[in-house]
Amino acid sequence: MTTLCPSTQPAFVQALSIIEGKWKLRIIYELACKEVLRYGELKNNVCEITHKMLSSQLKELEQDGMVIRKEYPQVPPKVEYSLSDKGRRFIPILNELCSFGAEISM
């Protein structure tokens, strides 16, 4: 078994700061499944989240380079979200989490 580094390891702390919180992993997961989602679709898929929380979590993920926000200049406004290259690099980790979840639920 591989030993893990201390939790004060800067790389671990940096990675954790990007995905910490109740909703970010769910948002990343939804975007990994559909590639491009509008705000309303994300809200429907993560139904327990409030509009304020979804908006703030998306802004943080965008600032961290995990999510791309594309706004179309039209009325009514249309905004789409997708994973950036950095966000797509996280998909194998999501797959491992899903595998782990399947194993422990047996």
TrEMBL record:
Residues 5-106 form the HTH hxlR-type domain. The keyword Nucleus does not apply. Keywords: DNA-binding, Transcription, Transcription regulation. PROSITE patterns: HTH_HXLR. Gene3D superfamilies: Winged helix-like DNA-binding domain superfamily/Winged helix DNA-binding domain. Pfam families: HxlR (PF01638). It comes from the Bacteria. The keyword Repeat does not apply. This is Winged helix-turn-helix transcriptional regulator.
